[in-house]
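Continuing the batch. This is chain 6 of the set; chains 1 through 5 are on the previous pages. Same settings as before, nothing changed between runs. Recording input and output for traceability.
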Amino acid sequence: MEQKNTWETYSEEQMKQVDAFAREYMNFLDNGKTERECIDQIVNTLENAGYEELEALVKADKKLKTGDKVYSVWMNKSIVLFQIGREKMENGINILGAHIDSPRLDVKQNPLYEDGGFAYLDTHYYGGVKKYQWVTIPLSIHGVVVKKDGSTVEINVGENEDDPVFFVSDLLIHLAQEQMEKKANKVIEGEALDIIVGNKPLVINKDKEKDEEEKSAEKDAVKKGILEILKNNYDFEEEDFVSAELEVVPAGKAREAGFDRSMILSYGQDDRVCAFSSLKAMLEIGETDRTACCILVDKEEIGSVGATGMQSKFFENAVAEVMNLSGEYSELSLRRCLAHSCMLSSDVSSAFDPAYASSFDKKNVAYLGGGMVFNKFTGRGGKSGSNDANAEYLGHIRAIFEKEKVNFQTAELGKVDLGGGGTIAYILALYGMNVIDSGVAVLNMHAPWEATSKADVYETKRGYVAFLENASL
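Output for chain 6:
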């Protein structure tokens, strides 16, 4: 089948819409480098759009009706939102599901140490990364420190122009003969991804005679200097690292890429590109026959585990609460709702890279500029760990997209025996609902800086709107 370039289908007015949408998206990326930061942005947006918090409605026992909009946040890292439709939820709902976590470095619970005149924070990488990509680039620290008294200190250092940044060092090329002979996964190992956070020792008064305690402090003078800064600037002690969640991510803003400004280069586009497009689709739709739902979850990059991952009962519990406020809850009705639902697992796909053409099947790969991507299945090798969507469901989606003139392409993640990956699709499919992976093609996936096409981002949002308004299989 001949692949159409989405840019060639746009009018001048649509081109302006693409650029405007890209600017909104880039701002979302700049202000949402962690799950918590994404949730803060999303909640502010929803409340301005008339959404109400589900938990407050439950306490007030307020009944829901067609057109009502509600959201529920779980542990400040996952969120689900609903717009109530005309039909009973028992007949099924239309769901978009994306994740807002991305590969990064996590600061350990006992992280701060000094060695060779440097102060370091010990880290543990999160998700699938090429570890060598994380050395010598400017890094920032985002997150929260929760103290024993329950107060929370928010940390965001490295993004403003006058902020300091941090980095992981690498061996100079002049001495790297042995290092260069190692396999790529051993060139930089996990325990070597500690970030340098200081080099200046805490100065002790030279004019007085030092006691034994001061002499001892000199042994870790750089570390002591960092601790003093943390206390003075952020009001937390070394022991507070135990109850901290600090994420180390690339410092810097999303940028337009290419002379033609056709692409976006940024950290965290897997999978915040689909999260943002899903959110905007929910805000754009009018009243619908079926209830529209959007799930934005944590922990996908490490298997969707934990209380904030898709494998938790958070989503199912929220659906039950919404059905109860709509006057139609029963265990059987909940099961019917989930089984009769339609879902787009809104996640990214690998984009064809001509520099590594041998890794892809050119007939079955996503191209930047090719529009929204559908992956009938993911998994590894012989489709292991995959959700494989039914042909009937694909036919239904095709009909919707042709009617709404949405540009789309189909793809696989790469050549059959080269690897693979997974999404949250198989987890929702366990309810018996129709699910297919769909989203945006990404170049440099899981690297500190990933690339997408502005046209694909915009077209995916259009596809999500069409799905929410028309899916009914």
